[in-house]
Amino acid sequence: MQRIVGMLVLAAGMAAAEMPAGLTLRFTCDEFRNNGTLLPDMTGSNSNGRATGVRYASGGRLNACCEFTGTKSSVLVTNSPLLESRQTTVGFWMKTSKAEWPERTLIEKHPETGYALRLVTGKESANKGKLRATVAGKTILSDVAVADNNWHHAALSIDGVNAVLYVDGVAQKQRAALGDAFSTQGADMWLGASRVPADAKNRDATFEGMLDEVLVFSRALTEAEVKDAIAATKPKFTKWQVERRLKELKDLYDRGLLTQEFYDSKVKECEVSP
């Protein structure tokens, strides 16, 4: 009971920051419908996802999350005019420790001329656990690895001519100049898996891990706006709440009611609201 009460206290007092304009799709992953097969688009635009083998899980970055099993788990979003734009930004929270061959698809929309974001695997030991974005055939590799079993935010911003990859709100060094090649050509969007049939040779593996707060915008966000989107989709606390929570955390940890991992993760969440 003490453990439950402590966790409830720590979860209280969240306040959302303002979301950037141009949001056309949002999966909060807080609920599934139709017996777990429908992931609702919370913007009201009706770009709902059809979930297969995806679990509803507690312990998301903000409330609940989608857990992908690594075996035939995916979310399919049927294409719509709202998702067709030469300027777009896709972003989400992710958590995984799995980076085994083959590459793990996180999100894609016509990867040949459109975009895809995948997790680099052990076959490339120097880059294992990093993110690889492919946009109109051009590649962007993240500076840092993210397969460390912690929550990370990934965002890919495309203005139709150039593409920038962000990890935890920081623009990565590599860029991609696209020219006029970028086009998603009416393709559907996939989360956690590739559109390539499961029995195809060299098919990318389905993602094994958690995704939360999946966002799609109809324009290219700036670095400051990516940070705003991050702030709008994670716990935020006032200065007084931070001090209170740190004290509560330390007390619960000293009494043996929190694991080291849980304690460390909650300390990281204690960020002061602007």
Compose a concise summary of this entry:
By secondary structure, the protein is an alpha+beta fold.
Distance between the termini: 34 Å
Q: Which CATH architecture of the largest domain?
A: Sandwich
Structural class: alpha+beta
Dominant shape: globular
Mean pLDDT: 84
Proportion in β-strands: 25-35%
Reading off the top of the CATH hierarchy, the class of the largest domain is best stated as Mainly Beta
Helix content: 10-25%
Keywords:
274 residues, alpha+beta, Jelly Rolls, 2 domains, 9-stranded mixed beta sheet, 8-stranded antiparallel beta sheet, 4 helices, globular, disordered N terminus
Provide structural commentary.
Helix 1 (2-11) packs antiparallel against helix 3 (239-254) and helix 3 (239-254) runs antiparallel to helix 4. The protein contains four helices and 17 strands. The longest helix has 16 residues, at 239-254. Residues 1-15 and 197-202 have low confidence and may be disordered. The protein has 274 residues and is α+β, with helices and mostly antiparallel strands. It folds into two domains: 2-9 and 237-269, no CATH class; 18-232, Jelly Rolls, CATH 2.60.120.200.
Topology readout:
Layout: H1 2-11, E1 23-27, E2 38-39, E3 49-52, E4 54-57, E5 65-69, E6 74-77, E7 88-95, E8 104-109, E9 115-119, E10 130-135, E11 138-145, E12 152-158, E13 162-167, E14 170-177, E15 189-191, E16 205-206, E17 208-217, H2 223-232, H3 239-254, H4 260-269
Parallel strand pairs: 8-16
Antiparallel strand pairs: 1-17, 2-3, 3-6, 4-5, 5-17, 6-15, 7-12, 7-17, 8-9, 8-15, 9-10, 10-11, 12-13, 13-14
Helix pairs in contact: 1-3, 3-4
